[in-house]
Amino acid sequence: MLFRFHFYDNVVSLETLNSVRLSSKYSRKMHHFNRNVSSHIKFLPTAKRLFRGLHLKPNYDAIVVGAAYLQKAGLDVCVLERRHVIGGAAVTEEIVPGFKFSRASYLLSLMRPQIMNDLELKKYGLKIHLRNPSSYTPLAEPGGLDGKAKSLLLGRDGQENAKQIAQFSQKDAKAFSEYEHQLERIVSAIDPLLDNPAVSLPSVMSSSLKDKWSSLKPVRALMGSVTSMGSDIQAFYELMTAPAQKILDRWFESEPLKATLATDSVIGAMASPQHPGSGYVLLHHVMGELEGIKGAWAYVEGGMGGVSQAIANCAEDHGSSIFCDKGILAQDDVDQLKQFDYTSPVTKINVAVDQLPNFTADPNSNGKEPMPHHQCTIHLNCEDSSLIHDAYLDAQQGKITERPMIEMVIPSSLDQTLAPSGSHVVLLFTQFTPYKLAGGAEWDDHNRNKYADIVFDVIERYAPGFKQSVIGRDILTPPDLEKIFGLTGGLSGLCHNSSSQHAHTLRGGKNNRTHHAAHPLSPHTFIRHCDS
After folding, report:
1. Which of 213, 312, 358, 383 has its CB surrounded by the most CB atoms within 10 Å?
2. Mind giving me the DSSP string for 189-226?
3. What's the family (predicted)?
4. Strand segments (E) across 135-284
Protein backbone atom coordinates (compact mmCIF):
# COMPACT_ATOMS: atom_id res chain seq x y z
CA MET A 1 0.00 0.00 0.00
CA LEU A 2 1.27 3.47 -0.85
CA PHE A 3 0.35 6.68 0.87
CA ARG A 4 -0.03 10.20 -0.34
CA PHE A 5 0.05 12.92 2.26
CA HIS A 6 -0.01 16.66 1.64
CA PHE A 7 -0.47 19.30 4.28
CA TYR A 8 0.89 22.20 2.28
CA ASP A 9 1.11 23.10 -1.39
CA ASN A 10 3.20 20.27 -2.75
CA VAL A 11 0.56 18.43 -4.70
CA VAL A 12 2.77 16.42 -7.08
CA SER A 13 1.14 12.99 -7.30
CA LEU A 14 2.89 9.70 -6.68
CA GLU A 15 2.93 6.93 -9.23
CA THR A 16 1.97 3.45 -8.13
CA LEU A 17 5.50 2.37 -7.41
CA ASN A 18 6.67 -1.11 -8.02
CA SER A 19 9.30 -2.84 -5.99
CA VAL A 20 8.89 -0.50 -3.07
CA ARG A 21 7.50 -2.95 -0.55
CA LEU A 22 5.89 -2.18 2.75
CA SER A 23 7.50 -3.85 5.72
CA SER A 24 5.60 -6.19 8.03
CA LYS A 25 5.48 -3.58 10.77
CA TYR A 26 3.18 -1.44 8.59
CA SER A 27 -0.15 -2.66 9.93
CA ARG A 28 0.72 -2.16 13.60
CA LYS A 29 2.14 1.34 13.13
CA MET A 30 -0.48 2.41 10.65
CA HIS A 31 -3.29 1.50 13.04
CA HIS A 32 -1.80 3.83 15.66
CA PHE A 33 -1.06 6.57 13.12
CA ASN A 34 -4.44 6.36 11.44
CA ARG A 35 -6.23 6.75 14.77
CA ASN A 36 -4.30 9.90 15.71
CA VAL A 37 -3.66 11.88 12.52
CA SER A 38 -5.95 10.25 10.00
CA SER A 39 -7.15 13.57 8.65
CA HIS A 40 -3.88 13.97 6.81
CA ILE A 41 -3.75 10.62 4.96
CA LYS A 42 -4.98 9.50 1.57
CA PHE A 43 -4.79 5.81 0.70
CA LEU A 44 -3.57 4.98 -2.81
CA PRO A 45 -3.54 1.72 -4.81
CA THR A 46 -1.05 -1.06 -4.14
CA ALA A 47 2.29 -0.85 -5.98
CA LYS A 48 2.31 -2.85 -9.21
CA ARG A 49 5.58 -2.44 -11.14
CA LEU A 50 9.27 -2.21 -10.39
CA PHE A 51 10.34 1.42 -10.14
CA ARG A 52 13.78 1.35 -11.74
CA GLY A 53 16.51 3.95 -11.91
CA LEU A 54 16.41 5.33 -8.37
CA HIS A 55 19.09 4.60 -5.82
CA LEU A 56 16.59 3.98 -3.06
CA LYS A 57 16.23 1.39 -0.38
CA PRO A 58 14.00 -1.51 -1.46
CA ASN A 59 11.77 -1.26 1.60
CA TYR A 60 9.88 1.74 2.99
CA ASP A 61 6.78 1.85 5.12
CA ALA A 62 5.37 4.60 2.90
CA ILE A 63 6.19 6.68 -0.15
CA VAL A 64 4.68 10.13 0.28
CA VAL A 65 4.68 13.77 -0.71
CA GLY A 66 5.03 15.32 2.71
CA ALA A 67 6.52 12.98 5.29
CA ALA A 68 6.95 14.54 8.70
CA TYR A 69 3.77 13.19 10.34
CA LEU A 70 4.33 9.66 9.08
CA GLN A 71 7.96 9.60 10.14
CA LYS A 72 7.08 10.96 13.59
CA ALA A 73 4.58 8.11 13.90
CA GLY A 74 7.45 5.67 13.50
CA LEU A 75 7.11 4.71 9.85
CA ASP A 76 10.14 4.50 7.55
CA VAL A 77 9.37 7.16 4.95
CA CYS A 78 10.79 8.14 1.58
CA VAL A 79 9.93 11.50 -0.03
CA LEU A 80 10.33 12.00 -3.78
CA GLU A 81 10.48 15.55 -5.16
CA ARG A 82 10.12 16.13 -8.90
CA ARG A 83 12.27 19.28 -8.97
CA HIS A 84 15.80 19.99 -7.78
CA VAL A 85 14.43 21.85 -4.76
CA ILE A 86 11.87 20.61 -2.24
CA GLY A 87 8.59 22.36 -1.57
CA GLY A 88 6.45 22.33 -4.69
CA ALA A 89 5.20 25.90 -5.05
CA ALA A 90 6.57 26.89 -1.61
CA VAL A 91 10.19 27.37 -2.63
CA THR A 92 12.96 29.95 -2.50
CA GLU A 93 15.08 30.32 -5.64
CA GLU A 94 17.91 32.69 -6.54
CA ILE A 95 16.96 33.53 -10.13
CA VAL A 96 18.85 36.85 -10.12
CA PRO A 97 22.26 36.47 -8.41
CA GLY A 98 22.08 37.73 -4.83
CA PHE A 99 18.26 37.94 -4.77
CA LYS A 100 16.14 35.20 -3.17
CA PHE A 101 12.65 34.94 -4.63
CA SER A 102 9.62 33.21 -3.16
CA ARG A 103 9.10 32.17 -6.72
CA ALA A 104 5.49 30.99 -6.52
CA SER A 105 3.73 31.08 -3.12
CA TYR A 106 4.78 34.22 -1.27
CA LEU A 107 2.88 34.72 2.01
CA LEU A 108 2.11 32.56 5.03
CA SER A 109 -1.14 32.57 6.98
CA LEU A 110 -3.41 29.56 6.48
CA MET A 111 -1.09 26.79 7.63
CA ARG A 112 -2.97 25.31 10.55
CA PRO A 113 -1.45 26.10 13.98
CA GLN A 114 -1.83 22.43 14.92
CA ILE A 115 0.52 21.42 12.12
CA MET A 116 3.10 24.06 13.03
CA ASN A 117 2.99 22.91 16.66
CA ASP A 118 2.93 19.18 15.94
CA LEU A 119 5.96 19.38 13.68
CA GLU A 120 7.76 21.95 15.88
CA LEU A 121 8.56 24.00 12.81
CA LYS A 122 10.16 26.82 14.79
CA LYS A 123 12.54 24.32 16.34
CA TYR A 124 13.43 23.17 12.83
CA GLY A 125 14.23 26.62 11.53
CA LEU A 126 10.99 28.38 10.61
CA LYS A 127 11.13 32.12 11.25
CA ILE A 128 8.42 34.56 10.26
CA HIS A 129 8.01 38.32 10.02
CA LEU A 130 4.47 39.46 10.86
CA ARG A 131 3.07 42.34 8.85
CA ASN A 132 1.22 45.28 10.38
CA PRO A 133 -0.13 47.21 8.56
CA SER A 134 -0.95 44.63 5.93
CA SER A 135 -2.81 46.34 3.06
CA TYR A 136 -1.92 49.46 1.08
CA THR A 137 -3.87 50.89 -1.86
CA PRO A 138 -2.31 53.98 -3.45
CA LEU A 139 -4.30 56.00 -5.96
CA ALA A 140 -2.59 57.28 -9.08
CA GLU A 141 -4.52 60.52 -9.59
CA PRO A 142 -4.77 63.52 -7.23
CA GLY A 143 -7.97 63.39 -5.22
CA GLY A 144 -7.48 65.33 -2.01
CA LEU A 145 -8.17 68.96 -1.24
CA ASP A 146 -4.42 69.51 -1.21
CA GLY A 147 -4.15 68.24 -4.78
CA LYS A 148 -2.26 65.11 -3.75
CA ALA A 149 -3.02 61.49 -4.50
CA LYS A 150 -4.73 59.58 -1.69
CA SER A 151 -3.98 56.14 -0.32
CA LEU A 152 -5.66 53.57 1.91
CA LEU A 153 -3.59 51.83 4.60
CA LEU A 154 -5.19 49.04 6.64
CA GLY A 155 -3.87 46.97 9.53
CA ARG A 156 -4.81 45.62 12.97
CA ASP A 157 -5.47 49.03 14.55
CA GLY A 158 -9.23 49.61 14.28
CA GLN A 159 -9.06 53.32 15.04
CA GLU A 160 -6.36 53.91 12.44
CA ASN A 161 -8.35 51.90 9.89
CA ALA A 162 -11.38 54.12 10.52
CA LYS A 163 -9.24 57.23 10.08
CA GLN A 164 -7.86 55.94 6.78
CA ILE A 165 -11.26 54.92 5.40
CA ALA A 166 -12.84 58.24 6.48
CA GLN A 167 -10.78 59.94 3.75
CA PHE A 168 -13.20 58.32 1.32
CA SER A 169 -16.38 57.81 3.37
CA GLN A 170 -17.42 58.47 6.96
CA LYS A 171 -20.16 55.87 6.56
CA ASP A 172 -17.65 53.22 5.49
CA ALA A 173 -15.33 54.13 8.35
CA LYS A 174 -18.09 53.18 10.79
CA ALA A 175 -19.18 50.07 8.88
CA PHE A 176 -15.75 48.51 8.37
CA SER A 177 -15.27 47.41 11.97
CA GLU A 178 -18.63 45.58 12.02
CA TYR A 179 -17.86 43.99 8.65
CA GLU A 180 -14.61 42.59 10.02
CA HIS A 181 -16.24 41.47 13.27
CA GLN A 182 -18.93 39.57 11.37
CA LEU A 183 -16.32 37.73 9.27
CA GLU A 184 -14.37 36.95 12.43
CA ARG A 185 -17.46 35.53 14.15
CA ILE A 186 -18.19 33.30 11.17
CA VAL A 187 -14.59 32.12 11.01
CA SER A 188 -14.64 31.33 14.73
CA ALA A 189 -17.74 29.21 14.16
CA ILE A 190 -16.30 27.19 11.27
CA ASP A 191 -12.76 26.93 12.65
CA PRO A 192 -13.40 23.52 14.30
CA LEU A 193 -14.20 22.11 10.84
CA LEU A 194 -10.82 22.95 9.38
CA ASP A 195 -8.91 20.14 11.09
CA ASN A 196 -11.50 17.47 10.27
CA PRO A 197 -11.55 15.25 7.16
CA ALA A 198 -14.55 15.05 4.88
CA VAL A 199 -17.14 12.42 5.75
CA SER A 200 -17.01 9.22 3.68
CA LEU A 201 -20.53 7.78 3.67
CA PRO A 202 -19.43 4.34 2.36
CA SER A 203 -16.95 4.16 5.23
CA VAL A 204 -19.60 5.13 7.76
CA MET A 205 -22.09 2.58 6.45
CA SER A 206 -19.63 -0.32 6.43
CA SER A 207 -17.89 0.38 9.74
CA SER A 208 -18.62 -0.88 13.24
CA LEU A 209 -20.87 1.09 15.58
CA LYS A 210 -17.83 2.42 17.44
CA ASP A 211 -16.14 3.47 14.19
CA LYS A 212 -19.38 5.01 12.93
CA TRP A 213 -19.42 7.35 15.92
CA SER A 214 -15.79 8.28 15.30
CA SER A 215 -16.38 8.76 11.55
CA LEU A 216 -19.23 11.16 12.26
CA LYS A 217 -16.99 13.53 14.21
CA PRO A 218 -16.87 16.02 11.28
CA VAL A 219 -20.67 15.98 11.12
CA ARG A 220 -20.90 16.77 14.82
CA ALA A 221 -18.39 19.58 14.33
CA LEU A 222 -20.45 20.91 11.42
CA MET A 223 -23.65 20.92 13.46
CA GLY A 224 -21.84 22.67 16.28
CA SER A 225 -20.58 25.33 13.88
CA VAL A 226 -24.05 25.95 12.46
CA THR A 227 -25.49 26.29 15.96
CA SER A 228 -22.77 28.66 17.14
CA MET A 229 -23.32 31.07 14.23
CA GLY A 230 -26.67 32.14 15.59
CA SER A 231 -27.87 35.26 13.78
CA ASP A 232 -24.84 35.19 11.46
CA ILE A 233 -26.08 32.07 9.68
CA GLN A 234 -27.80 34.12 6.96
CA ALA A 235 -24.64 36.14 6.37
CA PHE A 236 -22.65 32.90 6.16
CA TYR A 237 -25.05 31.48 3.59
CA GLU A 238 -24.72 34.65 1.52
CA LEU A 239 -20.93 34.50 1.70
CA MET A 240 -21.05 30.95 0.40
CA THR A 241 -23.37 31.70 -2.50
CA ALA A 242 -23.49 35.38 -3.43
CA PRO A 243 -21.14 37.50 -5.55
CA ALA A 244 -18.57 39.35 -3.47
CA GLN A 245 -19.58 42.55 -5.26
CA LYS A 246 -23.13 42.27 -3.94
CA ILE A 247 -21.90 41.80 -0.38
CA LEU A 248 -19.41 44.66 -0.56
CA ASP A 249 -21.92 47.02 -2.22
CA ARG A 250 -24.31 46.45 0.67
CA TRP A 251 -21.65 47.22 3.28
CA PHE A 252 -19.72 50.08 1.65
CA GLU A 253 -19.94 52.98 -0.79
CA SER A 254 -16.32 54.03 -1.48
CA GLU A 255 -14.79 52.34 -4.51
CA PRO A 256 -11.13 52.18 -3.35
CA LEU A 257 -12.22 50.26 -0.24
CA LYS A 258 -14.58 47.97 -2.16
CA ALA A 259 -11.98 47.28 -4.86
CA THR A 260 -9.29 46.53 -2.29
CA LEU A 261 -11.54 44.03 -0.51
CA ALA A 262 -12.80 42.61 -3.82
CA THR A 263 -9.28 41.48 -4.73
CA ASP A 264 -9.55 39.02 -1.84
CA SER A 265 -12.55 37.37 -3.47
CA VAL A 266 -10.84 36.60 -6.79
CA ILE A 267 -7.23 36.11 -5.81
CA GLY A 268 -5.84 33.27 -7.89
CA ALA A 269 -9.20 32.51 -9.53
CA MET A 270 -10.40 33.04 -13.09
CA ALA A 271 -13.46 34.76 -11.71
CA SER A 272 -14.94 38.20 -11.23
CA PRO A 273 -16.23 39.71 -7.97
CA GLN A 274 -19.57 39.66 -9.78
CA HIS A 275 -19.60 35.84 -9.89
CA PRO A 276 -21.89 33.94 -7.50
CA GLY A 277 -19.89 32.23 -4.77
CA SER A 278 -16.95 34.62 -4.94
CA GLY A 279 -17.94 35.99 -1.53
CA TYR A 280 -16.73 32.74 0.04
CA VAL A 281 -13.09 33.62 -0.57
CA LEU A 282 -13.44 36.78 1.53
CA LEU A 283 -13.32 34.43 4.52
CA HIS A 284 -9.90 33.05 3.60
CA HIS A 285 -8.26 36.34 4.41
CA VAL A 286 -9.33 36.24 8.04
CA MET A 287 -9.12 32.46 8.55
CA GLY A 288 -5.40 32.22 9.22
CA GLU A 289 -3.58 32.44 12.52
CA LEU A 290 0.07 33.14 13.29
CA GLU A 291 1.65 33.74 16.70
CA GLY A 292 -1.83 33.52 18.21
CA ILE A 293 -3.07 36.44 16.08
CA LYS A 294 -6.20 35.67 14.06
CA GLY A 295 -6.08 36.79 10.44
CA ALA A 296 -2.35 37.54 10.53
CA TRP A 297 -0.14 37.25 7.45
CA ALA A 298 3.63 37.02 7.42
CA TYR A 299 6.75 36.77 5.33
CA VAL A 300 8.87 33.69 5.93
CA GLU A 301 12.51 34.49 6.59
CA GLY A 302 14.60 33.36 3.67
CA GLY A 303 11.51 33.05 1.49
CA MET A 304 8.69 30.52 1.38
CA GLY A 305 11.18 27.72 0.95
CA GLY A 306 11.80 28.21 4.67
CA VAL A 307 8.47 26.52 5.41
CA SER A 308 9.27 23.54 3.21
CA GLN A 309 12.78 23.28 4.61
CA ALA A 310 11.53 23.30 8.20
CA ILE A 311 9.11 20.47 7.39
CA ALA A 312 11.91 18.58 5.64
CA ASN A 313 14.23 19.14 8.62
CA CYS A 314 11.59 17.66 10.92
CA ALA A 315 11.07 14.66 8.66
CA GLU A 316 14.80 14.00 8.26
CA ASP A 317 15.42 14.41 11.98
CA HIS A 318 12.98 11.58 12.54
CA GLY A 319 14.62 9.42 9.88
CA SER A 320 12.96 10.23 6.56
CA SER A 321 14.85 9.98 3.27
CA ILE A 322 14.34 12.82 0.77
CA PHE A 323 15.28 12.54 -2.90
CA CYS A 324 15.06 15.44 -5.37
CA ASP A 325 14.79 15.17 -9.18
CA LYS A 326 12.56 12.09 -8.79
CA GLY A 327 9.32 12.99 -10.55
CA ILE A 328 6.57 10.39 -10.71
CA LEU A 329 2.87 10.56 -11.43
CA ALA A 330 0.03 8.10 -11.06
CA GLN A 331 -2.29 7.75 -14.05
CA ASP A 332 -5.21 6.98 -11.73
CA ASP A 333 -4.63 10.28 -9.95
CA VAL A 334 -4.15 12.15 -13.22
CA ASP A 335 -7.55 11.02 -14.50
CA GLN A 336 -9.29 12.14 -11.29
CA LEU A 337 -7.40 15.40 -10.88
CA LYS A 338 -8.25 16.45 -14.44
CA GLN A 339 -11.87 16.71 -13.31
CA PHE A 340 -11.08 19.65 -11.03
CA ASP A 341 -11.13 23.28 -12.20
CA TYR A 342 -7.53 24.42 -12.63
CA THR A 343 -8.15 27.53 -14.72
CA SER A 344 -5.56 30.06 -13.62
CA PRO A 345 -5.51 33.80 -14.38
CA VAL A 346 -2.17 34.37 -12.67
CA THR A 347 1.15 35.58 -13.99
CA LYS A 348 3.75 35.86 -11.24
CA ILE A 349 6.59 38.32 -11.88
CA ASN A 350 9.56 38.28 -9.51
CA VAL A 351 11.68 41.41 -9.67
CA ALA A 352 15.08 42.47 -8.31
CA VAL A 353 15.36 46.24 -7.78
CA ASP A 354 18.12 48.53 -6.55
CA GLN A 355 15.79 50.78 -4.53
CA LEU A 356 12.38 50.80 -2.89
CA PRO A 357 9.37 51.85 -4.97
CA ASN A 358 8.61 55.51 -4.30
CA PHE A 359 4.83 56.01 -4.40
CA THR A 360 3.47 59.42 -5.34
CA ALA A 361 0.70 59.05 -2.75
CA ASP A 362 3.25 58.46 0.05
CA PRO A 363 6.76 59.53 -1.01
CA ASN A 364 9.72 57.86 0.66
CA SER A 365 10.78 60.02 3.60
CA ASN A 366 13.22 57.71 5.39
CA GLY A 367 15.95 57.64 2.79
CA LYS A 368 16.51 54.01 1.87
CA GLU A 369 14.63 52.71 4.92
CA PRO A 370 11.28 50.99 4.26
CA MET A 371 8.14 52.81 5.36
CA PRO A 372 5.13 51.04 6.91
CA HIS A 373 3.31 50.69 3.59
CA HIS A 374 6.27 48.90 2.00
CA GLN A 375 5.65 45.82 4.18
CA CYS A 376 2.03 45.52 3.00
CA THR A 377 0.31 43.83 0.13
CA ILE A 378 0.19 46.78 -2.25
CA HIS A 379 -2.94 46.90 -4.43
CA LEU A 380 -2.63 48.65 -7.79
CA ASN A 381 -5.41 49.40 -10.28
CA CYS A 382 -7.87 49.41 -7.37
CA GLU A 383 -9.45 52.81 -7.88
CA ASP A 384 -12.68 51.06 -8.85
CA SER A 385 -13.85 47.46 -8.59
CA SER A 386 -15.05 47.63 -12.20
CA LEU A 387 -11.38 47.52 -13.25
CA ILE A 388 -11.12 44.01 -11.81
CA HIS A 389 -14.17 42.85 -13.75
CA ASP A 390 -12.90 44.44 -16.97
CA ALA A 391 -9.53 42.68 -16.65
CA TYR A 392 -11.37 39.40 -16.12
CA LEU A 393 -13.44 39.94 -19.29
CA ASP A 394 -10.25 40.59 -21.28
CA ALA A 395 -8.77 37.30 -20.10
CA GLN A 396 -11.97 35.43 -20.93
CA GLN A 397 -11.48 36.57 -24.52
CA GLY A 398 -7.83 35.51 -24.53
CA LYS A 399 -6.60 39.11 -24.49
CA ILE A 400 -3.63 40.59 -22.66
CA THR A 401 -5.33 43.20 -20.50
CA GLU A 402 -4.06 46.77 -20.33
CA ARG A 403 -5.22 47.27 -16.71
CA PRO A 404 -4.24 44.11 -14.81
CA MET A 405 -5.04 43.59 -11.16
CA ILE A 406 -1.68 43.80 -9.41
CA GLU A 407 -0.72 42.77 -5.89
CA MET A 408 2.83 43.79 -5.02
CA VAL A 409 4.74 42.60 -1.97
CA ILE A 410 8.25 43.58 -0.91
CA PRO A 411 9.32 40.89 1.60
CA SER A 412 12.81 42.37 1.86
CA SER A 413 11.20 45.34 3.63
CA LEU A 414 11.12 43.09 6.73
CA ASP A 415 13.54 40.29 5.82
CA GLN A 416 17.05 41.53 5.14
CA THR A 417 18.31 38.07 4.12
CA LEU A 418 16.66 38.23 0.70
CA ALA A 419 18.65 40.91 -1.13
CA PRO A 420 21.93 42.83 -0.99
CA SER A 421 21.97 45.90 1.25
CA GLY A 422 19.97 48.75 -0.27
CA SER A 423 18.35 46.50 -2.87
CA HIS A 424 15.02 44.71 -2.65
CA VAL A 425 12.92 41.79 -3.84
CA VAL A 426 9.57 42.80 -5.35
CA LEU A 427 7.02 40.04 -6.01
CA LEU A 428 4.09 40.78 -8.33
CA PHE A 429 0.98 38.61 -8.30
CA THR A 430 -0.95 39.72 -11.37
CA GLN A 431 -4.34 38.94 -12.88
CA PHE A 432 -5.93 38.34 -15.30
CA THR A 433 -3.90 36.45 -17.88
CA PRO A 434 -5.43 33.65 -19.97
CA TYR A 435 -3.78 30.24 -20.21
CA LYS A 436 -4.38 30.36 -23.96
CA LEU A 437 -4.09 33.60 -25.89
CA ALA A 438 -6.58 34.59 -28.57
CA GLY A 439 -5.89 33.59 -32.16
CA GLY A 440 -3.69 30.68 -31.20
CA ALA A 441 -0.86 32.95 -30.02
CA GLU A 442 1.67 31.43 -27.62
CA TRP A 443 3.11 32.73 -24.38
CA ASP A 444 6.52 33.11 -26.02
CA ASP A 445 9.24 35.52 -24.88
CA HIS A 446 7.68 38.33 -26.90
CA ASN A 447 4.26 38.03 -25.25
CA ARG A 448 5.74 37.40 -21.80
CA ASN A 449 7.77 40.59 -22.01
CA LYS A 450 4.88 42.49 -23.59
CA TYR A 451 2.69 41.69 -20.60
CA ALA A 452 5.45 42.38 -18.05
CA ASP A 453 6.06 45.76 -19.69
CA ILE A 454 2.35 46.58 -19.30
CA VAL A 455 2.55 45.68 -15.60
CA PHE A 456 5.68 47.81 -15.14
CA ASP A 457 4.02 50.74 -16.94
CA VAL A 458 1.12 50.52 -14.48
CA ILE A 459 3.50 50.49 -11.51
CA GLU A 460 5.31 53.48 -12.97
CA ARG A 461 2.06 55.49 -12.78
CA TYR A 462 1.94 54.95 -9.03
CA ALA A 463 5.68 54.89 -8.29
CA PRO A 464 7.70 56.87 -10.86
CA GLY A 465 11.23 55.54 -11.25
CA PHE A 466 10.29 51.90 -10.69
CA LYS A 467 11.27 50.76 -14.18
CA GLN A 468 14.68 52.37 -13.87
CA SER A 469 15.30 50.53 -10.60
CA VAL A 470 14.83 47.05 -12.11
CA ILE A 471 17.92 44.81 -12.11
CA GLY A 472 16.26 41.62 -13.33
CA ARG A 473 12.90 39.89 -13.61
CA ASP A 474 11.41 36.39 -13.74
CA ILE A 475 8.09 36.15 -15.64
CA LEU A 476 5.89 33.12 -14.97
CA THR A 477 2.69 32.87 -17.05
CA PRO A 478 0.08 30.15 -16.41
CA PRO A 479 1.82 27.71 -18.82
CA ASP A 480 5.15 28.45 -17.09
CA LEU A 481 3.65 27.73 -13.66
CA GLU A 482 2.30 24.46 -15.02
CA LYS A 483 5.62 23.42 -16.56
CA ILE A 484 7.89 24.43 -13.68
CA PHE A 485 5.75 23.61 -10.63
CA GLY A 486 3.43 20.95 -12.01
CA LEU A 487 0.38 23.15 -11.42
CA THR A 488 -2.09 22.03 -14.07
CA GLY A 489 -3.34 25.13 -15.87
CA GLY A 490 -1.14 27.21 -13.57
CA LEU A 491 -3.24 26.50 -10.47
CA SER A 492 -3.63 23.76 -7.87
CA GLY A 493 -7.43 23.88 -7.83
CA LEU A 494 -9.90 26.74 -8.02
CA CYS A 495 -10.87 28.08 -4.63
CA HIS A 496 -14.62 28.30 -4.45
CA ASN A 497 -17.08 26.47 -2.26
CA SER A 498 -17.57 23.57 -4.71
CA SER A 499 -13.88 22.71 -4.66
CA SER A 500 -13.07 23.37 -1.02
CA GLN A 501 -11.80 20.77 1.39
CA HIS A 502 -15.02 18.96 2.20
CA ALA A 503 -15.87 18.53 -1.49
CA HIS A 504 -12.34 18.04 -2.78
CA THR A 505 -11.48 14.37 -2.41
CA LEU A 506 -10.14 11.52 -4.50
CA ARG A 507 -11.27 7.93 -4.59
CA GLY A 508 -9.27 5.23 -2.91
CA GLY A 509 -8.97 3.31 0.34
CA LYS A 510 -11.74 3.38 2.85
CA ASN A 511 -11.73 7.09 3.62
CA ASN A 512 -11.36 10.33 1.72
CA ARG A 513 -8.63 11.98 3.72
CA THR A 514 -6.75 14.17 1.33
CA HIS A 515 -6.52 17.59 2.96
CA HIS A 516 -6.12 20.54 0.62
CA ALA A 517 -4.69 23.92 1.47
CA ALA A 518 -5.12 27.01 -0.67
CA HIS A 519 -3.77 28.52 -3.89
CA PRO A 520 -0.01 27.92 -3.96
CA LEU A 521 0.74 31.29 -5.42
CA SER A 522 -1.48 33.42 -3.32
CA PRO A 523 -1.10 33.89 0.34
CA HIS A 524 -3.69 31.16 0.82
CA THR A 525 -1.89 27.98 1.42
CA PHE A 526 -1.77 26.41 4.32
CA ILE A 527 0.63 28.51 2.43
CA ARG A 528 -2.05 29.93 0.30
CA HIS A 529 -3.81 28.03 -2.30
CA CYS A 530 -7.34 28.65 -3.05
CA ASP A 531 -5.02 28.41 -2.64
CA SER A 532 -0.50 31.73 -0.48
Report:
1. 312
2. HHGGGGGSPPP-HHHHHHS-HHHHHHHTHHHHHHHHHH
3. Belongs to the carotenoid/retinoid oxidoreductase family.
4. 135-142, 149-154
My answer on whether 118 and 168 are in the same domain is: no
Positive or negative CA dihedral for 346, 349, 350, 351?
A: negative
Could you give the CA distance from residue 172 to residue 251 in angstroms, rounded to a whole number?
8
Tell me: do 352 and 452 sit in the same domain. yes
> Is residue 337 domain-shared with residue 353, that is, in the same domain?
no
- With cut-offs at 50, 70 and 90, classify the pLDDT of residue 523: very low
pTM: 0.82
Distance CA 344, CA 494 (A): 8
CB 186 within 8 A of CB 235: yes
**What does the DSSP assignment read for 63-118?**
EESS-HHHHHTT--EEEE-SSSSSSTTS-EEEEETTEEEE-S---B--S-HHHHHH
pLDDT in tens, 286-300: 899 999 999 999 999
Q: Which residues contact 312 (CB under 8 A, 6 or more apart)?
A: 68, 79, 86, 320, 322
Query: What does the pLDDT look like over 425-451, one tens digit per residue?
Result: 999 999 999 999 999 999 999 999 999
The answer as to whether 147 is a domain residue is: no
